[in-house]
Structure formats: structure tokens, C-alpha cells
Amino acid sequence: MRILVTGGAGYIGSISTRLLVDAGHEVVVLDSLERGHRNAVDSRATLVVAPLGDIEILDSILPGMDAVLHCAGYIDVAESQRDPELYYRKNLAEPSRMLDRMTLHGVGNLVFSSTAAVYGQPETMPITEDALRQPINAYGASKLAFERMIELTESVGLIRAVRLRYFNVAGAWPDGSLGEAHPVETHIVPRLLKAATGFGASFSLFGTDYPTRDGTCVRDYIHVVDLAEAHRAALEYLHAGDAGTVCNLGSGKGYTNREVVDACRAVTGSDIAVDTGPRRAGDPAMLIASNERARKVLGWRPERDLHTMVGDAWRWHTLHPEGHAAPVT
Ligand SMILES: NC(=O)c1ccc[n+]([C@@H]2O[C@H](COP(=O)([O-])OP(=O)(O)OC[C@H]3O[C@@H](n4cnc5c(N)ncnc54)[C@H](O)[C@@H]3O)[C@@H](O)[C@H]2O)c1
Fold first, then answer.
1. Does pTM surpass 0.70?
2. Is residue 139 among the annotated active site residues?
3. Which residues are near ligand 1 (CB < 6 Å)?
4. Tell me, what CATH number does 124's domain have?
5. Does some domain include residue 137?
6. Residue 257: pLDDT band by 50, 70, 90 thresholds?
7. Burial code of 60-77, b = ≥16 C-beta within 10 A, e = fewer?
8. N or C terminus: which one in the chain shows less Cβ crowding within 10 Å?
């Protein structure tokens, strides 16, 4: 297949690009590099540096594409609360322009990087795809708004899409050559590992009085390579002519924040210092995915456990303590 990967210079997009080219697909990456890294893009892919909403560029690269894997977006929840307009622009308005040009050029297959944040604070665990979508922050709301745009476009037969709702993504390419390098890091595993390398800020656990086995929040973690495998499965599913769908991507297992701290300490051999603080507003006690639909519909299953995620991420952080400063391919 000939696939356009948006956001292919970011964490998830760069690892998905490499997995897709390894599988024999032809990949064009569209990324403005506003939050990504030129060096993260596999040298076998073509990189086009432009914003998603650039119609001239879209009109030059979309004809002849079999599918779009849309990973580009803004992902910082706290930033989204400070500046919701920015998040609606980056996660809805610009992608909607791309969707419009896709339909114009007859590119009918779309895989979308959505998020568990569209659910908000569901009470029933594990979370199935039919759970109410009630996001509690502007990030989740902007991703849900684009899901709705996709649903509308699908309903008139212009595209078929697989919307993939990721839970907590962690890990790196197994040899440590590609990994997570967000300009502002908010995710627990890289924050802990950066604290262990001495390149990150000190680490705080928010809330130790949740009704969970050790009082800290429970989250579902998925290895980024398992996620990339799910992208490949979703693209091949659409290519085979199957109907659009929506799937959660998680392991179906929950780990407490303290268990993640322990895993990071075990892998690094470092007694990473951890402070405790009060709960943060809007953090639910538990978020665990049901991944039954992805298993059944896409024939996918997660293969890598938390220990592997942390081990692979640690290899990335020790080899690249300052991120993508040097080429990796
Ligand atoms: N990382 C996670 O744990 C996680 C969890 C759930 C969902 N997601 C979703 O996965 C996607 C990728 O996340 P990530 O962690 O790889 O993020 P990232 O910030 O590492 O990568 C995003 C990439 O998109 C590019 N980009 C952003 N806006 C753009 C625009 N308007 N035009 C062109 N390029 C643009 C950035 O330059 C960057 O390279 C996001 O859409 C996010 O909502 C991520």
C-alpha cells in the first residue's frame, strides 16, 4: 500500500512509519515538525514538512494514496485546558481540511489516532467502545469532535475509517533507536526514566488515597510497537474492503502508579526519588480498556508487558538522553 502518515515525525507516528516500511509499504510522512523531529523519520519514507491544513501540499501528495494514518495532533491535557482554541484548531479544524481533500481525491481509507480521553470518567470497567463519550478536558473534546466529523463523513459513504482509542502508550523501538521525545513530557514512564537519567524533573505521585490496591491510580499501558502493529492491522482491514469501526487499544490490564514506579526502579536499578502530592482534579481512580473488539475485528492482540515497555523505553533514554539530537537511521 501507499500510505500517508501524518505526524510521522512524532513518537507514535515515527514508530508506526518504521513498522510499515519494514512490512513493505510505501510511506509518505506529512509533519510540520512543530512538535516532532526530522531525525525520527525513517530514511526509507518520504518526509514532507508542512502543516496538515496546507491544501496545496495535500493536493500534491494525496492522489494515488491508498490510505491515511492520521497521528498528527496536540496531546498535552494541561495545555488544552489553558488554550482550548489551539486544540480545536490542531485536532479538529486542520484535520477536517485534510479529510475534505481526501474525499476530493478519492482517498477513502482512514485510520485515526484517537484516545481513551474521549470517555472521560466512565464508571464501568473494563471500558468498552459503547461507553458514553463524555470528555472532561479540551484535549479529549477536540479528539471526540474529529471522531464525530469522521462519523459524519462515513455516514454519507465518502470514507471508511478505523478510529483507534489508545490508552497509555509507552515503550520504544526494541533496540532503543526510536522513542518518546515530547517537548513537554507529561507521561509517567518517560518522566520516571528521565528522572533516573538525571535529565528530567523530580517525580510526584498525585493522590495516594484512591480506592485501589495501593491507593494510587490504575491505568492500562500498551507498548508502542503493539500499537503500531494495530495500525498495520487496521490499514490492512480497510484495504480488504471491510466496514469502518472503532476499537480500544489497551492491554486490558491495569497497573497502579506505584507499580509503574517499581517497574522503572527495577529496570533502571536506580532508586528514583518520588514525592507524593494531593489528587489532581479530573484523574479517575481506574481506566482499563476492554480490547475484545480489536482482538476480534482486527485479529490483533497485545504481545508486550509493562516490563518490556519500561525496558525498551530505558534503552531509548540511555542511548538518547537528549532525545532526537542525532539521526537514527
Ligand atoms: N502518546 C500517547 O500516550 C497517546 C495516547 C492517546 C492518543 N494519542 C494520540 O496519538 C497521536 C500521536 O501522539 P504522539 O505521542 O506521537 O504525539 P507527538 O507530539 O510525539 O507527535 C505528533 C506529531 O504531529 C505533528 N503535528 C502536530 N500538529 C500538526 C499539524 N497541524 N500539522 C502537521 N503536523 C503536526 C507534530 O510535529 C508531531 O511530530 C496524537 O494524535 C494523540 O492524540 C497519543
1. yes
2. yes
3. 7, 9-13, 31-36, 51-52, 71-75, 90, 94, 113, 115, 143, 166, 168-169, 182, 187
4. 3.40.50.720
5. yes
6. very high
7. ebbeebbbbbbbbbbbbb
8. C
